[in-house]
Structures are given as structure tokens and as C-alpha cells.
TrEMBL record:
Pathway: Porphyrin-containing compound metabolism; heme O biosynthesis; heme O from protoheme: step 1/1. HAMAP family: CyoE_CtaB (MF_00154). Converts heme B (protoheme IX) to heme O by substitution of the vinyl group on carbon 2 of heme B porphyrin ring with a hydroxyethyl farnesyl side group. It is a multi-pass membrane protein. Keywords: Cell membrane, Heme biosynthesis, Membrane, Transferase, Transmembrane, Transmembrane helix. The chain crosses the membrane at residues 29-48, 54-74, 95-115, 121-142, 149-172, 178-202, 223-240, 285-305. It comes from Faunimonas pinastri. GO terms for molecular function: protoheme IX farnesyltransferase activity. Belongs to the UbiA prenyltransferase family. Protoheme IX farnesyltransferase subfamily. This is Protoheme IX farnesyltransferase. Its EC number is 2.5.1.141. Carbon 2 of the heme B porphyrin ring is defined according to the Fischer nomenclature.
Length: 307
């Protein structure tokens, strides 16, 4: 898993632009982190001064970006041999690995310390744990060792709404844990759908994703099992009373559609170059965004009407 681009001399490296450092932060992942953290903050009881709310979201987003930079630093060797990641700043030779590592560490420390000093230390501690879990537990340990990497590692991506809640309340409750559970349960079918049509890329890099270890048929069955579980977990905000009737109806409909698409994938197999897997992957993004958007709108309306 080596690549000539990782053996360039210091003189050959360079040409980094602002956009390359932004790419290190994984902006698409960061946008999801910001969005789910915002929902956690809005659903939380009480309120936070607007300035502190902005600082909270900034720190959470910077912490997420720091995780992405550390991930790209450690994974530069496998990124170089995967088609969809070969153009990233490090394997393409635009940023030195040492620069990415320094960048990620500085942002990690900065985001945690500012959040702790400006908001509260519980939220800062949770953010620090999130960065550690993604950069060390998932990236260094799980990703290259077990096919359950996405299942266990999904905890890192599921923590932002918990951090957001802690920013507002200074504590924890069952509501943010439910939001955590939704994202945690959503992660395996989302990424395994991607792994089905990108299995050759993962195999080339030596990453033990589920299709490469257990086979495509087993992966499709597990996607269906998690989809059924997700449909039930997605209803919990309504069942537990912090998601309204509209949320319950939308969650039920989206959950049923998620299951339907997983069944189609199970029956279709690898026909049409896993077109069903690609469609499920795309729908999974719509599913998560819609559920959290409904909760956000509901919380916003409650705040306006209650003012």
C-alpha cells in the first residue's frame, strides 16, 4: 500500500492553497456534524446566548475538521491507492504529512480549549473524546483491523448532537442519546451500501470492509437488518415525546422506504453494477437529513411560539 507520491522529497512537495487545507477538514462531513450538533442544541431545553451558540458550533466544526485532518494524515498511504481518495492533498503531494498532522493537532487543542473556557467543560470533554475516537480508535485501530469498523466507529459521527446538547444544558439526558442512537444505527447501512459499489477500491487498499470480508450477500442481509432496526429507532423521538406527530409520520414513511430499498437491494444482488446500492446510499442521506430537519423546524417553531 505504498505510492510514489508519498516518497517525494521536501523540495518536491508543496503548492498547497487554502482550498487544500479546507479539503483536509473534510467539509462535507463537517457540514453534517454542524447540522446534527445544531439540532442537539435546538432540541435542548433552555437557551444559550447567541454568541456562545456560534462559538459552540464553531468549536464543534473545527474539532470535526481536526479529526478529518488527522484521519487523512494517518490514511495517506491507503488514500494514495484508492481511486476516490487519490486526489486528496497529501497523496497528491500538495501538503506534507507532517503539516497535516500539525494542522490537525493544533485545531484539536484549540477547539477543545475554547469550548471549555467559553461554554462548559462537559461539552469540551465530549468533543475531545469525539476527536480521539475518530482519529485514534476508528482510524488507527478499527478501520484496518475489523469489518465492524463502521459499526463501532460510527459512535464518533453520532456524538455531535450530544455535544450540542451539553453546550446548552451543561449535562446529558435521554434525548441526545436518542439522537446519537439514530445516527449510530444509520451508519452501517449507509456506509455498507457505499462499500458494495466501491468494494474493489477498498480491497485494493486492504481495508476489511464488510463486502470484502463477509461477501456481498451477507452485507446485503445485514443492511436489511440494520434498516429495520433504524426504522424503529427513528421513531423514538415521537414515542418519547420530543418529536411531534408530524415527525412521527415522516419518520414512519421514511423508515418504510428505507426498508423497501434494502429489500430491493437484497433481491437485486449485484445486477446493474449495484444500482440499488447506489440508490440506497443516496436515500440514506435524505433520510437522516430529513429527520433532523424536522426536529430542527419543530424546535424552532416551539421557541418562536413560546417566546
Amino acid at each position: 500500500m505504498t505510492d510514489a507520491r508519498l516518497e517525494l522529497t521536501d523540495e518536491q512537495w508543496g503548492g498547497a492553497e487554502v482550498g487544500d487545507y479546507i479539503a483536509l477538514l473534510k467539509p462535507r462531513v463537517m457540514s453534517l456534524v454542524i447540522f446534527t450538533a445544531l439540532v442537539g442544541m435546538m432540541v435542548a431545553p433552555g437557551g444559550l446566548h447567541p454568541v456562545l451558540a456560534v462559538v459552540s458550533l464553531l468549536c464543534i466544526s473545527v474539532g470535526a475538521g481536526a479529526s478529518g485532518a488527522l484521519n487523512m494524515w494517518y490514511d495517506a498511504d491507503i488514500d494514495a491507492v484508492m481511486k476516490r481518495t487519490a486526489g486528496r492533498p497529501i497523496p497528491s503531494g500538495r501538503i506534507l504529512p507532517s503539516e497535516a498532522l500539525t494542522f490537525g493537532l493544533i485545531l484539536s487543542v484549540f477547539s477543545v480549549l475554547v469550548l471549555g473556557v467559553a461554554v462548559n467543560w462537559l461539552a469540551a470533554g465530549l468533543l475531545a473524546f469525539t476527536i480521539f475516537f475518530y482519529a485514534v480508535v476508528y482510524t488507527v485501530w478499527l478501520k484496518r483491523w475489523t469489518a465492524q469498523n463502521i459499526v463501532i466507529g460510527g459512535a464518533a459521527g453520532a456524538l455531535p448532537p450530544v455535544v450540542g446538547w451539553a453546550c446548552v444544558t451543561g449535562g446529558l439526558s435521554y434525548e441526545p442519546l436518542v439522537l446519537f442512537a439514530i445516527i449510530f444505527t444509520w451508519t452501517p447501512p449507509h456506509f455498507w451500501a457505499l462499500a458494495l459499489f466501491a468494494s474493489k477500491d477498498y480491497a485494493k487498499a486492504g481495508i476489511p470492509m464488510m463486502p470484502n470480508v463477509a461477501g456481498d450477500a451477507s452485507t446485503r442481509r445485514q443492511i436489511l437488518a440494520y434498516s429495520v432496526l433504524l426504522a424503529g429507532v427513528g421513531l423514538l423521538p415521537w414515542v418519547l415525546g420530543f418529536g411531534g406527530l408530524a415527525y412521527g409520520v415522516i419518520a414512519a414513511l421514511l423508515g418504510a422506504e428505507f426498508i423497501r430499498r434494502a429489500v430491493v437491494l437484497l433481491r437485486q444482488g449485484d445486477a446493474d453494477n449495484y444500482r440499488a446500492a447506489k440508490k440506497l446510499f443516496g436515500f440514506s442521506i435524505v433520510y437522516l437529513f430529513t429527520l433532523f430537519a424536522v426536529l430542527l423546524v419543530q424546535a424552532g417553531l416551539s421557541a418562536v411560539l413560546g417566546a
